[in-house]
Amino acid sequence: MTGHDHDEQDESLLGGGDRPEQNALSDDNNQFDTGTVHASFSSTQRLLYISHFLSTWNSRVFEFGAFLFLASIYPQTLLPASVYAMTRAMFAVFLSSATGYAVDRFPRLSSDQVPNDESSSQLWLLLPLCLLAAAEKLGSVMNTIAVERDWVVAIANGFDERLATLNAQMRRIDLFCKLAGPLVISFVDAASTKLAIVVTGSMTCASVLVEYFTIARVYYKVPELSKSKETSSAESSSWLKGMMHTWLRGLPAYVKHQAFLPSFALALLYMTVLSFNGQMITYLIAIGVSSSAVGILRGVAAFFELSTTWLGPILMKRIGAVRAGIWFLNWQLACVGVACLFFWISETRRITLAAGIVSAVVASRLGLWGFDLSAQIIVQEEVEPEMRGTFSSQEFALQNAFEMLAFLSTIVFPRPEQFKVPAAISASAVATACVLYAIFVRARRGHLLHLSKCMESTHRKKARWTALGHEPIDNDEVELQAAAPQVS
């Protein structure tokens, strides 16, 4: 959207248009109205951020804490944590289409009121714990689809700058919660696991009313959110019929969409054990790293991820989201490859092994979340409003499917000394994502590298060399002199 378009949109929002005359009074009124609009947007931002912070904080604390609790019960095997996580992912795979259908078809406020606050109170019963965690996962998926993929677009109201600001700030909140939440609960867990469970549940219960109040205020402050989306009568006549329609036709529509390749490449990155998730947490604890140290390391990783929310927009502003994505993705591949080398180097001491793996994984988070921001911008710009929920639900289903495969890999190879095999599989997934995204970039831009600009850079260097008083080198003349016979 150009600056002229923004000016026209501001005029339409403020009741402007073709005015027969301009005077000081009308300019003052226009400035007052503009200030009112900006103040209203700022107020809406604050309410949205408060709700998102509380929801994300509780989700991240529960997500990290649950693995610490399981690791304290089963310290010598990855199997229980993998079964737990795989159950959560399995429910998300099979029911993500339902959540996407709800976001597309139901009023925006009702789809965002799904509770995201299940907590584990019967830790010794693995099956009930898995079911409760699956319910929490579904609530988290629906909240993410509704708010991050649909609400922010409606709130931005066509302003690219506002959309970029909302995306970056929402990601900062998510990454801050990933940094601080695990750090807090890991220190509490180091003191007492039972106390950590109580703290996790108490924080969740205390924030429910605040979350509901703030998100409801956002809904009523933004008229765009209350507008019904365009749906065909055949799809909306029956909820069950519409659900089956989404389930059967959602995937083909997703695959045929022009934003499929970046979305699928992002989903592939979830097939990894080289992140501070349950498998790697359990692995680090198994090789002797304390829970508090794991929390600190995850905090450091989240700090690197948080820096991406500033680096990403700067890079995308300079070279665009499409080009920035391939830079970030290649960086992640390089770091993950280094991490895998430490697993396969024989006779590596545990301290060296842990330090090398953690350092490479931490550095890889810059690439992961930078590409996440790039892909999110591409999807938001390419996907039609009435298709956002369905498209995002298919993407989330694939993300959880690949995450489930990652957990399956540690079920097949549950011993800590076998962890190098799932790590190699993770690196292969990142490499595949790089290839798929490169295909998208090649199709979109016609090339992967600006060879013409590289040639221009070479000519500029030659011109500067000549300006310093040196004669440019004629390569053809040099070759002829080298080929000429030497006369003694």
Automatic annotation (TrEMBL):
Q: Which GO terms describe its molecular function?
A: iron ion transmembrane transporter activity
The UniProt function text for this chain reads: May be involved in iron transport and iron homeostasis.
Highest taxon of source: Eukaryota
Q: Which PANTHER family match?
A: SOLUTE CARRIER FAMILY 40 MEMBER
Q: What is this protein called?
A: Solute carrier family 40 member
What are the top taxonomic ranks of the organism? Eukaryota, Fungi, Dikarya, Ascomycota, Pezizomycotina
Membrane topology note: Multi-pass membrane protein
Show the stretches that span the lipid bilayer: 61-79, 259-277, 325-345, 351-375, 419-440
Decide whether keyword Ion transport is in the record: yes
Tell me yes or no: is Oxidoreductase among this UniProt entry's keywords: no
Q: Which organism is it from?
A: Hortaea werneckii
